[in-house]
Amino acid sequence: MFLRIFLSLFLCLPISALAEEVQPEKPKQLLLVSFDGAGDNTLWQRSRDFARTANIRFTYFLSCTLVLAKPDAAAYKGPHHKAGRSNIGFAQSREEARTRLAHVWQAHLEGHEIASHTCGHFDGADWSEADWATEMKSFRSVLSDAWAANDAARDEPQGWRAFVEQGIRGFRAPYLSVPDTLFAAEKQAGFLYDASSVTRGPEAPVDKGGVSRFGLPLIPEGPKQRPIIAMDYNLFIRHSAGVENPSRSAEFEERAYTAFRAAFDRQYEGDRSPLQIGLHFVKMNGGAYWRAMERLATEVCKLPDVACVTYAEAMEVLEDGRVQESSGL
């Protein structure tokens, strides 16, 4: 008798209520924040300090000439360029390079990810696969020998060379140039993912040819909500035509923060596709875009259903549906 009553009540439930009972739990919202270049040592310190308070792990796309001192610049030769040339320069001294190397290693130990942004920051849109392979080889070679080249061989951390050869598995091309030759070279060089593409909005990465391709999303921004790549340089160009205007820094920060937060909320309340935001180690427009990112991360990265992770961690999460717990961050 009791069973019949229970079944009749159960069958009388509206279909919507039954659907709610079996609705799957939403995945965690992923936020991926990365830095291109990774040069300025004060910003290395700022980002690492901030990460400890905000429960976020960053991906640093490092340019290898920034750990090569200017007197040693000729040790690097980019494809189709003379030795000692770089679009972003070199470390001004071996002391500066040593400080940067220490930040790279400490960030690695703290759970952040070090990835490649090539060496000389040249536009490889017309490069052959062999050209890309040469630049990728230079990246690992310069980084492997960096401690010794900067008069600090005895300070080289145990495991450094293995880390350079085996632990750097992500790549972002300068200027977001993505010819087919790039992806073929990445596969041969052992990179697992590329983060150079641009997508219409936040999307999960797609695997093509054995390399996972992440794309920086277009997000609405400004009074007219025009799409823009979620990267500080693009905001800098739109807001002030690439000319520093610190007097409007607070205004530009608010615009960037509003765009970042709205893009995050759309995913968080929607299908929870990963959101990527790209920055540089330059305080454009008085640091407006760094502050906007820090505001967003402070607000969302401690939420229980949000994970602010590296690209490598995001790949693991998307593959197996789990998020590694933060290790001390």
From TrEMBL:
Gene3D superfamilies: Glycoside hydrolase/deacetylase. The keyword Signal applies. Residues 1-19 form the signal peptide. Keywords: Signal. The keyword Ion transport does not apply. InterPro entries: CE4 (IPR052740), Glyco_hydro/deAcase_b/a-brl (IPR011330). It comes from the Bacteria. PANTHER family: CHITIN DEACETYLASE-LIKE 4, PTHR45985. This is Polysaccharide deacetylase. It comes from Pseudorhizobium tarimense.
